[in-house]
Amino acid sequence: MVDAPHILVVDDDARLRKLLQNYLSSNGYRVTVAASAVAARQMMLALSFDACVLDVMMPGETGLSFVKSLRGIEADIPVLMISALSESADRISGLSSGSDDYLPKPFEPEELLLRLRNLLRRSSNGRPRANAVRFGAFAFDLQLGELRKGDAALRLTSAEKDILRILAKAQGQPVSRLDLTQDEADSATRKVDVQINRLRQKIEADPTNPRYLQTVRGAGYVLHVEQGA
pTM (2 decimals)? Predict the structure, then answer.
């Protein structure tokens, strides 16, 4: 499932989060769950997602507010909004906020799956390819998670895609190992070092003397990209 679409489910109902996580996982998706908009926003800083299933009514920041702010960060991520509010005015409000589809609760999991597949299909077919950073002979598409050298696509693991996205979004600023993994365990930060070394094997002419993916002592790692790319 390394290359399976990655779905973010945001809902304060623990039972529903678990149900959707199990159901979507059993249908071939990678799934990450969040109990609030705050938690979801933190996850999106560290991970990339192909779609979001978002509840409207949550404590603190509502789904409506979250999706409005989301459009300023990840404008092209498909959002399927779910809500117990089923009046036409509620659906219009949800769609006006920036969501791509609106599914009233209660719903059949199969219907949610079909709507999600349709959103992913439309997003894949219509997604622009201009959102890319370039370094040397390489181009990395932040939306697709695709690394190319000329016309050839290079295979990346999910973790490598996530790390490249974070470094590219940092716009030439160092990113700490903790921010790259979101896990304070020593084993997690060591894994980041391993993934960085593997990325260097793919993009550096001399991995022991990297030109693009460099170590910043005491700060972490930085990706040097072409300005204006």
Answer: 0.56
